[in-house]
Amino acid sequence: MNGFDTISLDEVGLVDRLLRRKPRGNALKEIHNLLATTALPDLTAADVENVLSAYEVSRTQARDGLLELYRAAVEFRLRDRHLSDEDVADLRRLRYVLGLDDDDAGSLEREQLRSVYRHQLKSALADGVLSAEEKADLAAMVANFRLPEDVRLAVYKEEAESVIQQAFSTAIADQRLTDEEERRLALMSQNLGVAIAQSADAQRQLERFRLLAQVENGQLPDVQSPLILQRGERCHARFTCALHEMRTVTKAVSYHGPAGRIRIMKGLSWRYGYVNVNRITKEELKLIDTGELLVTNKRLLFNGAKRNTNVPLKRVVHFTMYKDGVQIEKDSGRDQFFIGSGDIELLGLILEGVLGMSR
Q1: Does residue 289 lie within any of the structural domains?
Q2: How many domains does the chain have?
Q3: What are the tens digits of pLDDT across the range 24-78?
Q4: Which one-letter DSSP state was computed for residue 43?
Q5: Residue 326 lies inside a defined structural domain of this protein
Q6: 305 located within any domain
Q7: Which domain holds residue 308?
Q8: Burial environment of residue 185 by CB neighbours within 10 A (0 to 12, 13 to 18, 19 or more)
């Protein structure tokens, strides 16, 4: 009854039995059982007061326990996510019977109503979209619960933004943002009536993710070239770097064996010993020039401080990306290493794009 089931009381211990004392913890359990066995109209504040007096528990001491009983009663009446006039009357009567302060009881009610509304809103937002029917149901719940508008707005904004942020994070988890993903996020934001504000740094990151997605889909960017290009040639990337090539280097290593000195006369001596010179030859990366690598739809152009070089795309047989540059393998001649700083991932995608289109 009233959302309560009867519960067992704690057994009286030997000492309490000898002293004829009742376990104080049973006071709230007896009130609980009163609510479980007696209709609310038949209960009075005196019934609760008599139980507390019998256990020598003041209302101040019982306050938290009485509020928990009231919370259980509110939860029971909200199980269908609706408060009828009868429910409201029952709760008003229960406040009186339990002797609860209106502020305490009102605060607890608002907390429970807000919690139920939040749960229902989360359920409706599970698919990222609110249908007309779902919006109408939520509006009816707000009206029925008499939720203040500022409370409704705060809960709605928090949950809706959370859904959009999660969808946004999922979309850019691969560090790409496609046109389709952007359209879906825009429609979601429009449907829910909220938008995620992005910082300047976040906006720059998003621009990069958009660009990476476009390049992967074959939409290469056009950038201004510092050099005059051929007819129909377009520059797609510029990479500040230093050009290196593998060169053979020979080093001489001297070895001195046992040595000594023999004095022949004052001021004159003869030194003896053994010297062996070994030559070690190895390949080393040698700096050739510094400048800028240009990637066009026809060739790789290196605009160097000393000279310019170019490699037609058809001569490139393979390229390897490193964290600080790229190695270009040609059909003949030395490999070229362009080492520098910049967006290495973007450079690699553009290289892959232009080489794919040149084949």
Answers
A1: yes
A2: 1
A3: 888 999 999 999 999 999 999 999 999 999 988 998 899 999 999 999 999 999 9
A4: -
A5: yes
A6: yes
A7: 235-247+285-358
A8: buried
Q: Is residue 353 part of a domain?
A: yes
User: Closest Cα to residue 72, out of 118, 3, 9?
Assistant: 3
Distance of CA 353 to the CA centre of its chain: 30
Element (H, E) at 311: strand 308-312
Q: Are strands 260-265 and 268-272 parallel, antiparallel or unpaired?
A: antiparallel
Domain containing 350 — which CATH number? 2.30.29.30
pLDDT band at 3 (very low <50, low <70, confident <90, very high): confident
- pLDDT digit string, tens, across residues 137-183: 999 999 999 999 999 999 999 999 999 999 999 999 999 999 999 99
In sequence order, which residues have a C-beta less than 8 Å from that of residue 346 and are 6 or more positions away?
A: 208, 211, 212, 215, 237
Distance separating the N- and C-terminal Cα atoms of the chain: 81
Tokens representing 337 are 């290493």
Residue among 117, 121, 123, 115 at smallest CA distance from 142 = 117
The letter for the amino acid at 340 is: G
